[in-house]
From TrEMBL:
Sorted UniProt keywords: Cytoplasm, GTP-binding, Magnesium, Metal-binding, Nucleotide-binding
Alphabetized Pfam families for the sequence: GTP-bdg_M, GTP-bdg_N, MMR_HSR1
Names of the cofactor(s): Mg(2+)
Localisation per UniProt entry: Cytoplasm
Subunit structure as annotated in this protein's UniProt entry: Monomer. Associates with the 50S ribosomal subunit.
Role this protein plays: GTPase that associates with the 50S ribosomal subunit and may have a role during protein synthesis or ribosome biogenesis.
Gene3D superfamilies (alphabetical): 6.10.250.2860, GTPase HflX, N-terminal domain, P-loop containing nucleotide triphosphate hydrolases
GO molecular function: GTP binding; GTPase activity; metal ion binding; ribosome binding
Domain Hflx-type G, chain residue ranges per copy: 186-362
UniProt similarity note: Belongs to the TRAFAC class OBG-HflX-like GTPase superfamily. HflX GTPase family.
Name the UniProt record assigns to this protein: GTPase HflX
Amino acid sequence: MKAIGIIRHSPNKRVNREEFEELLRSAGYEILAIVEQVREEHPKYNIGPGKLQEVKELIKELNPDRVIFANPLTPSQSFNITKELRIDVIDKWQLVLEIFEKRAHSKEAKLQVEFANLQYELPLVKEAIRRIKLGDRAGFKGMGEYQTQQYLKHIRYRMGRIKKELEKVKADREVKRKRREEVGFILIALAGYTNAGKSTLLNTLANEEIETKMQMFTTLDTTTRRFMMNGKKTLITDTVGFIDDLPPFIVEAFHSTLEEIIKADIILLILDISEPWREIKRKFLASIEVLKELKTLDKPLIIVLNKKDLTSKADVEDKKKALEELITRKGIIAHSIIPISAKENDLGELKNSLEEVMFTLPKYRLFEVLVRDKEKVPKVMAMINSIGEILDIKYGDTTKIFAYIQIGMIKSLTKMGVELKHPS
């Protein structure tokens, strides 16, 4: 499909043209032209009437299939522009949903995309009904008044059904999550802007081969994999990528997926350190906004600067310092900022930082383990090493092991005939 893109920059905030063009390409569009304007939002057309006429002439010349706005359009603006241009018009969020539709593979992801699409269409259909009553136009997508009213009922009915299905998925995931905690897994969530390298990091940590591409929103389906980190059982989950000003209806639709971040013990926020600083800053702040909306900024946060192999050591250090200053100004608490190359498996510093954070988690507590049977000492030590960390051992008739142990794993130890108490 061929498209003309339209970008309206506000006088105090510019839209990222490169990202918009990447969105268009990711959705499979051939870009015929990009029209840009700097002005405040026009209430009727978003862009100015003069610029709209310019677009109309461009349509006659280039014959595109669609006109796509980089700015969100109100239902009224969408109808007004379509009426003037006599061509299919969509905005940035409908474009994102088109990409989501192409990338969704699991039943859950498909339901989430359908729910988001219906939420997007709902105000458009209501606007169509309002205009029909005013005698302004025939209906929604060429439908008459009765058809449009029936479609509105269908949207509401379908949204109700999808919500129930997603609730079932959520309940199943909660059961699995509790089981994982019971058997002693640490839950780590990968979060960050789309195309930052989250899937590549998961592949490297868990020795997997999940699809990775240099395009936006490759990952829509939640992927959880197991890996052992210094003998500790760990689960890492890849989540859908963020984007600037993520609208509430998309956050709501993908809430069950984003819940993996909410329920995680540790969050790894991935940034592409090879990008220019202005882009790193923009994407970092956009990601923080989503984490804030999910109420997860109180969780242990490690900021991971990925793709350091694509730039110089000095550049990495400069950007890391700038990020540290930004975090301080914004009052954001991060455990550490770690440069890595997921592609080259340069993850030593990250693994050390993860292990440091693990023993600060509420699920770990300091215990004194009393082993009265000397023959059991090696087995008890092996068990503790798999679920915690031994700090000190005092041998005697009763061996005393001081260690950090996951609370959920205490039963496994007591079954071995040992006694646990909090050290005085």
